[in-house]
Amino acid sequence: MRDDDDFHGPFPRLRSTVLDTADVHGLATFYRHLLGWDYAPGNGPQDEEADEWQIIRDSGPGRQMLAFQYAEHVPRSTWPDPTVPQQLHLDFTVATSAELAECHDRALTLGATLIRDESDHPDEPICVFADPAGHPFCIFVMTW
Predict the structure, then answer these.
(1) Mean pLDDT of all residues belonging to the chain
(2) pTM over 0.90
């Protein structure tokens, strides 16, 4: 693989990140409530493919999206134990430690599991969670 900057556009743009789950609606609902996002048009629980596929998105100009697709069996990550690696994790940022505390409580209320709490870290306050399906995600205070 080439390791230089001699590539020229056009370049693809990331549309969404897709998470496998045995409970499409449950995981979409978890992230919808955690992030304050809405279902993308035609992708809500009433959609005919809702048990197989759902998409949520933010309301901002970038229209960030998360998608959820059905998989019969998705082993929970055991991270930081390497038996079942993360394979992918999501990073979310907040502006202040107070916002981090609020999101921490919301995540736990919605069914997340706390993996690591470094909310008092002096350089980068962070909390690491697993969502209800076991996918790791981080919420941290953006300090730069």
Answers:
(1) 89
(2) no
